[in-house]
Each structure stands twice: as structure tokens, then as C-alpha cells.
Design brief:
The protein is mainly β. It has a domain at 1-35 and 49-57. 0% of the residues lie in helices and 23% in strands. The chain has no helices and 3 strands. The structure holds zinc ion. Zinc ion is lined by residues 13, 15-16, 18, 45, 47-48, 50.
Length: 75
């Protein structure tokens, strides 16, 4: 493929100029919620480690701000 369009499907690392979605790795944050789900993901270059950004995990349902789930313990 010789598509030179700078599409979102073929990003390029500004540091090492490696291209391709497969060169971007995402890893969950080390901080996790009580259920073990990561709070956010870090997207970074697989080659040089350049961090593209941090994005929130996919959420389902209506958006909600940070919540402290405080349920009554021991009904
Ligand atoms: Zn890179």
C-alpha cells in the first residue's frame, strides 16, 4: 500500500517516525478501580516509547464524573 494520506488509521510517531497503528501500544494505568479496571490508558510508541496521550477507558452508559462508590456495608 502506498497511501500517503496522513489518515488517522496510519499515524506516525513524531519522534522516531515509525508508522502504523500496530506501532502504537496502549497499556492500562497502574491505578485501578476497586473492580480492577484501569482508570485510563496510556498510548505510546512501541519503538521509542513516545507517549501519544492518555485517554479514558471506554465507558458504557451515561457519562458520569468520578464517583466514590460508597455502598452500605453489611446490610
Ligand atoms: Zn516512536
Amino acid at each position: 500500500m502506498s497511501d500517503e494520506q496522513n489518515s488517522i488509521a496510519d499515524p506516525r510517531c513524531p519522534i522516531c517516525e515509525v508508522r502504523g497503528m500496530d506501532k502504537i501500544v496502549s497499556r492500562p494505568s497502574s491505578e485501578t478501580a476497586k473492580r480492577g479496571q484501569p482508570w485510563f490508558f496510556v498510548a505510546q510508541c512501541a519503538d521509542c516509547g513516545h507517549i501519544y496521550g492518555v485517554f479514558a477507558k471506554h465507558t458504557f452508559g451515561p457519562p458520569a464524573g468520578p464517583q466514590l462508590v460508597v455502598k452500605g456495608r453489611g446490610n
